[in-house]
UniProtKB/TrEMBL annotation:
Protein name according to UniProt: SDR family NAD(P)-dependent oxidoreductase
Family of the protein in this entry: Belongs to the short-chain dehydrogenases/reductases (SDR) family.
InterPro entries: NAD(P)-bd_dom_sf (IPR036291), SDR_fam (IPR002347)
One GO molecular-function entry: oxidoreductase activity
Protein keywords: Oxidoreductase
Alphabetical list of Pfam families matching this protein: adh_short
Gene3D superfamilies found in the cross-reference section: NAD(P)-binding Rossmann-like Domain
Stored PANTHER family: 5-KETO-D-GLUCONATE 5-REDUCTASE (PTHR43669), OXIDOREDUCTASE (PTHR43669:SF14)
Length: 76
């Protein structure tokens, strides 16, 4: 399996489905994960699930629509 230590992953649509699974996988592999979803309650649940799964030593952020635009501008 691959490791993502010292990496940051922005996972859009991570409140459910494939995005959620990817965020959880990246967290298990050591990445700092930014949870980005238009549904704040679903995104908050994912943060709680990742944290309760023993990944609390890592940093997680909840990113909503307005902040996502700002993050996209930084990437460009």
């Amino acid at each position: 399996m691959f490791r993502l230590d010292n990496k940051v992953a922005l996972v859009t649509g991570s409140g459910s489905g494939i995005g959620k699974e990817i965020a959880q996988l990246y967290a298990r592999q050591g990445a700092r994960v930014i949870i980005a979803d238009i549904n704040p309650s679903a995104a908050q649940e994912v943060v709680a699930e990742i944290t309760s799964a023993g990944e609390a030593r890592k940093q997680y952020s909840l990113m909503l629509r307005k902040k996502l635009r700002y993050a996209q501008s930084l990437i460009r």
